[in-house]
């Protein structure tokens, strides 16, 4: 029997597993991919540095040769660009990373700490008998654990299967593509630009590449066929700084659509020994620039809670309630900050922006 089974191998899941395994707990981690699929969230905030050092993976991270990110340039309500340097954060830079390599690095560190990392393995079913969890996996494999963790990202597969609700605050999606053969030496910053039907971000990647993503609402994406190359590029070339940055070339890769809605997993009156971490607990708008940072922070809180439950099983209800209360507070603060960001844009009286003004008023 494992102490903990973690379902999902993103930063939240691997960091949780690493923290637990480092204290001698027996941990298994299920990751359905082999880190061979594209992953978004390529820009890391400077504040991840102390968290990576605390996890003991700083040298591994540096070995990935991430690109320094010197800051953010934004064209938001004002059509003139505004610049924000990362020097004000107290660190020299943030970073632009290959997320597949980054996530694989964390999984390798968790494995080296003693976690059984099962790649190419999906969750099939999970049931609690009052004493332990029976976790059915692909390949007809079964695991037994005292505790389970949902780290399946925005899909919250485990939590939803256990009856948790996902509260949605918007319908945001991201439509993304990459350009290859781009000289990024002078382009090491994140660019954000508001547009009529949403907003764009572009960022360099290791390996002379650039990623671009249009953030809009799912219904607007369908209505205007924005997941098709023609309409997507038309919107791109209608921008100012973004179009200038990527130039007249069409993207090198096919378009991919990712869910990006803000959602909170809630579990009223359920004090069974399981937790959600990272996006599975609270998925945030990329405008916050804090997805990986939040993942690593919630992993720390989750690991502390799980260790508490393992050491004091009689306190499970109290510990889980405290953990959920902290996530509720995090969600409230995030929604206030998100409203502040979006309410600053007044130049587009369009459905995308009007919806967010209504949410801000509510």
Report the average pLDDT across residues.
Answer: 93
**CATH overall fold name of the largest domain:** FAD/NAD(P)-binding domain
Specify the overall morphology: globular
| Gyration radius over CA | 21 Å
User: What is the number of E strands?
Assistant: 20
Number of helices: 11
Structurally, the number of domains stands at: 2
Main beta sheet, described?
7 strands, mixed
CATH class of the largest domain reads Alpha Beta
Strand content: 25-35%
What is the quaternary state of this protein?
single chain
State the CATH architecture of the largest domain: 3-Layer(bba) Sandwich
By secondary-structure content and strand pairing, the structural class works out as: alpha+beta
* Helical fraction: 25-40%
In the predicted model, the low-confidence regions spanning at least 5 consecutive residues are: none
Q: What do we call the CATH homologous superfamily of the largest domain?
A: FAD/NAD(P)-binding domain
Q: Between the first and last Cα atoms, what is the distance in angstroms?
A: 47 Å
